[in-house]
Amino acid sequence: MFSRDNWNEIIEALSSNWFRTTLTAFGVLWGIFILVILLAAGKGLENGVKQGFGGMATNSMFMWTQPVSKPYKGLPKGRRYSFKVDDVAAIKDAVPDLRFVSPRNQLGGFGGTNNVIRGLNTGAYNVYGDYPEIIQQEPMDITSGRFVNYADINNNRKVAVIGEAVKTEMYEPGEEVIGSYLKISGVNFMVIGTYKKKGNNNGNREEAQKQIFVPFTAFSQAFNRGKDVGWMAITAKDGSSITELKDQIFDIVKSRHSIHPEDDRAVGNFDLYQEFSKINGLFVALKGVAYFVGILVLLSGIIGISNIMLIVVKERTNEIGIRRALGATPWSIRGQILTESIFLTIISGMAGIVFATGVIALINFIMKDMDTSEMMFANPSVDLGVVMTALGILVVSGLLAGLIPAQNAIKVKPVDALRTE
């Protein structure tokens, strides 16, 4: 614990040439400012990219059928097959670490012919036959009414949940939607809800609102799909990786449809978890780059402080000699110099943190009322861990900056110091 006299001496030493001290401190201030801003910018980019997933269950994959590429059990190469409803139960039973296995069928498309009619209005929309779990795999906000439930599934109810964009195009402003009917490929479905998709849907945010969801069973019955399944959305339980489980799933499908075990082309898939992991790896790398660049800039400021402390030690040679002659130990001299170095480093570094925090707060204030869903940048911020890490870097930097000057100070012999003019 230092006395008031020691602290007064530290402040007097640093303020004796305030202009020099300020310029030196600015190097550390700027270094820590750059470090915090780079980390906040990286976090903002990460938030923006993850926002694009719209809360989607990232531990998921989508699986569909493709022509087989190898003959097997007398069956020819190039044949086509379809998933069946029974495949869903088989996959669930064989792979208990799966949370959801959602069979899906699809009709139409944005670029196809008009498949939805209401009065004089027509449109081309993607129509999905789904189970209720899909709302947990592709989250959406239900803006009115409700989503498909198991009563709809079990009773083959011809009901539909439509996107806000479908509502805008097919209905007049203020017109009641819930309880009305849409004709989908010639079959009437009653609208029971409207939704708005979260995120930017990989840049297709507007198109994501132009979808229609109906019960899987009603879809199969209305459009003569029988037991066929077009594709599946599969999500693993927390603590499990769909990337590690998908080979088991593929083996089950191959076995049930007489596909060669080594035919890797017969089952198409998109592993969302794998892609999400790559993105997370990118952000870890960006954080490493931010620390690397920030510390390099900070290092230049630390070198400046070290140089100034060397000059201070030189200027105080007489003082050090007198203190040594009066019995001051080498550790007390070293401690004094190191304390001055750490004090200057921490004060200038904290000023840099405060400055960076102010800039980040200003950016967030400007972006508060902006629609950031398509900007891939949102809520730049740093957490307490980053601040604590920055403080740790400052303390270590202060020690390093004062180490050489402190060692030079204790090498001063009292007699030689007293002779110095």
Automatic annotation (TrEMBL):
Coiled coil (UniProt feature): none
TM annotation in the entry: 21-41, 289-313, 342-366, 386-404
Domain MacB-like periplasmic core span(s) in chain numbering: 21-249
Membrane topology category: Multi-pass membrane protein
This protein's name: ABC transporter permease
Record-linked InterPro entries: ABC3_permease_C, MacB_PCD, Macrolide_Exporter_MacB
Ranges for domain ABC3 transporter permease C-terminal: 292-413
Cellular location(s): Cell membrane
Organism of this sequence: Salinimicrobium gaetbulicola
Family: Belongs to the ABC-4 integral membrane protein family.
Keywords: Cell membrane, Membrane, Transmembrane, Transmembrane helix
